[in-house]
Amino acid sequence: MDKMDHNAHSVYLMYYHLIMVVKYRRKVIDDPISERAKEIWERIAPDYGITLEEWNHDVDHVHVMFRAQPKSELSKFINAYKSASSRLLKKEYPQIRERLWKEAFWSQSFCLLTAGGAPIDVIRNYIETQGEKKR
């Protein structure tokens, strides 16, 4: 079993699997854009008590596994992340602006799953293999 996280008053182990989709499922995510999106995540996440565990992408969505704390405000964090990353990615990568001119980068909706139902290694493996060509 994974080592528990803790604060002054509690111990916990809270893993989440988040899937964020590009607006209109536009196929704009490549390795450099994914890497930049991940950097933005790692800059904002600590303010919300969130720790990145795994990151992977396909051309139109990203998969993220992260740990949170009981006090983490997940929807606030996700909205803050999507807003900041949308602005920065569109500013830094002109090819995105061509595909999503006045639109946000991310779709408003997202999928957030608690990762308690499957062993973390199973989920980690799933995220690591996303975007690979099926053999």
From TrEMBL:
Any one GO BP annotation for this protein: DNA transposition
GO molecular function: DNA binding; transposase activity
The Transposase IS200-like domain, residue ranges: 11-130
Name of this protein: IS200/IS605 family transposase
Organism: Coprococcus comes
Gene label: tnpA
